[in-house]
Amino acid sequence: MSEEEDDIILSELDDEELVQQMFDDLYDGLKEEIEEAVHILLDRGWEPYDILTKALVGGMTIVGNDFRDGILFVPEVLMAAGAMKGGMAILKPLLAETGAPRIGKMVIGTVKGDIHDIGKNLVSMMMEGAGFEVVDLGINNPVEAYLEALESEGPDILGMSALLTTTMPYMKVVIDTMTEKGIRDDYIVLVGGAPLNEEFGRAIGADAYCRDAAVAVETAKEFVLRKHNQMAAGA
Amino acid sequence: MTNALSEMLQTRDWLMADGATGTILFNMGLQSGDSPELWNVDQPDRIATLYQGAVDAGSDLFLTNSFGGTSARLKLHDAQDRVRELNRAAAEIGREVADKADRKVIVAGSMGPTGEIMAPMGTLTHESAVAMFHEQAEALKDGGADVVWVETISAPEEYAAAAEGARLAGIAWCGTMSFDTAGRTMMGFTSADLAALVEQIDPAPIAYGANCGVGASDLLRTVLGFRAAGSERPIIAKGNAGIPKYHDGHIHYDGTPELMARYAVMARDAGAKIIGGCCGTTPEHLRAMRAALEETPRGDAPTLEQITEELGGFSSGSDGTDGEGPKRSRGGRRRSRA
Questions:
Q1: Mean pLDDT in chain B?
Q2: Which one of A115, A168, B40, B304 has the fewest beta carbons within 10 angstroms of its own beta carbon?
Q3: What distance lies between CA A93 and its chain's CA centroid?
């Protein structure tokens, strides 16, 4: 960090500069600065939903893109997600009060036999950042746990994650069971994890394979929009 | 520290390691989501068959069926109290298979990642990670492993913790990382970073390198990266046999024995001294690799262009060691990190 270190007073920046600065601060994982900036924008009369989408989601989109492009890696993304969570914690109760639009709802979990949840956690955080409600089932989920959550939570999307070649076939067990019960087409099924690929996702009957958290968010948005359009057309 | 592996390395130009464990156990009926390590006790004959497959195909060393043998991983199967028993059994079966062979074969006790993120990013402390690896290394040593073999690691902190576990158990070690994200580990660690890290660990590994990851081409680029970093330490190359595909209820890797044979020779020419496969690598692949290594005279290290031509393209333009990687241009006013 050899740049000029002139201390920035966040409250002295105009709105546009402040949002730009929030992009950088999210990128750098500066949680306190993000929290401060969120408060400043609220004081200036910004709607919580606008702060979420324009500042936080905007910033996390940059983080997501650079993660996808191999510029940022897991530690930096975790830091950024931590900073975003700081901002989200302030906005969440306000969003609930104001009845801000929600893009969709996702149930997500790592499959049975797999405890690797780094990728899944990134997806959870970035989905929340993008305005989705996320129900996180954690690790090591048998098919029963997924079905129960689908029933009780009624999400738009089911997300499954596996990091091991020894656990990835379990995703098919879950999808096959959903098909047996006649509920497969009620949900958008997204899968992800390091050993997977697009062809694997298709072969097991998922709607899409998501290469990383950023792609997961984009894919989820696209499918939910498509689903809404279909429903509108059918109505 | 002298041991069977370092002695073998002194007398040989290259060694061939083994191939896949999970892939082969699935073919024997292991169910997705179940713990392979439980088979060390419940199905010891099948584990012996797994090891024997590698030995018969010409492997000079094989890894034990203990990748998920830390308490953190066994906890999933409610077997966190069986670390000792399961790892010891993994090594004992290996010892028996190796000692029966008509040539010297090394038993390497596999230690995979805990699956947790280490502090300060995550919750796993250095102390508890060391304790877990120590417990596993002791059991592998008691079962007769010649070395412990740390593999598929992403974080330097965890690599170092596993090394310390081996040191506390008083057993020599080797360690590989998985470079699966734009040529780096998912934590952003490059081949050059690992080459530097191993020299800072005491005792240093007998050999270090890369395993798993995304295909043969990337793995070879990583090996070239180790060499470019000026490393004299023996390098390990254990790449996957292509990428996983799903066929009739089975995972199948698309890399042919011929491709893996070409990969093995290029890995050796690139500077690897211990060459094997990872996921999807069956005894059939290993036989082709062994034959190619024996029959093909040593050549010059391949260039990136030659690797692409022979084995296919890379998953990313840069692997982070050439300063050519993509960069972010920032919009706001830069501030110093707190």
A1: 93
A2: B304
A3: 19
Which residues, 6+ apart, have CB-to-CB distance to A18 below 8 Å?
A10, A37, A40, A41
The span from the first CA to the last CA of chain A, in angstroms, equals: 57
Smallest CA-to-CA distance from A218 within A57, A20, A48 is with: A57
CATH 2.40.10.340 assigned to domain A9-101? The reply is no
How far off is chain A from B98, nearest CA to CA, in Å? 26
Q: What is the CATH number of domain A102-235?
A: 3.40.50.280
Are the C-beta atoms of A177 and A186 separated by less than 8 Å?
no
The pLDDT value recorded for residue B336 is: 45
Nearest to B187 by CA among A227, A75, A147, A23: A75
Contact across the interface for B32 and A169, Cβ inside 8 Å: yes
Which residues in chain A are contacts of B121 at CB distance < 8 A?
A: 74-75, 78-79
Annotation: CATH topology of B8-311: TIM Barrel (3.20.20)
Domain boundaries, chain B: 8-311
For position A227, what pLDDT does the model report? Answer: 86
Q: Could you write out the DSSP letters of every residue in B85-122?
A: HHHHHHHHHHHHHHHHSSS--EEEEEE---SSPBTTTS
Assess A132–B contact: CB distance below 8 Å, yes or no.
Answer: no
What are the tens digits of pLDDT across the range B2-35?
799 999 999 999 999 999 998 899 899 998 778 9
Residue B330, pLDDT score: 67
| B44 has a pLDDT exceeding 50 | yes
Q: Which residues of B touch A23 (CB under 8 A)?
A: 331-332
- B331: pLDDT confidence band, cut at 50, 70 and 90? low
192-221 of B, contacting A, C-beta below 8 A: none
Is the pLDDT assigned to residue B333 strictly greater than 70? no
- Cα atoms in the 13 Å half-sphere on the side-chain side of B78: 0
Among A165, A199, A200, the residue with its CB nearest the CB of B22 is A165
Q: Residue A116: is its pLDDT beyond 80?
A: no
CA distance A142 to A111: 7
Q: Point out the residue among A28, A118, A172 whose CB comes nearest to the CB of B337.
A: A28
The reported pTM is 0.87
Mark yes or no for CB contact B330/A24 under 8 Å: yes
- Mutation test of the interface with chain A: which of B28, B327, B333, choosing the one with the most A Cβ atoms within 10 A? B333
Identify the H or E element spanning B151: strand B147-153
Does residue A114 register a pLDDT over 90? no
Q: Percentage of chain A surpassing pLDDT 70?
A: 95
pLDDT at B25: 93
Candidate from A70, A79, A140 with C-beta closest to B325: A70
**What's the pLDDT at A26?**
93
Q: Which residues contact A223 (CB under 8 A, 6 or more apart)?
A: A157, A188, A190, A207, A208
For chain A, give every domain's residue range: 9-101, 102-235
ipTM of the complex: 0.84
DSSP run (H or E) holding B244? strand B244-247
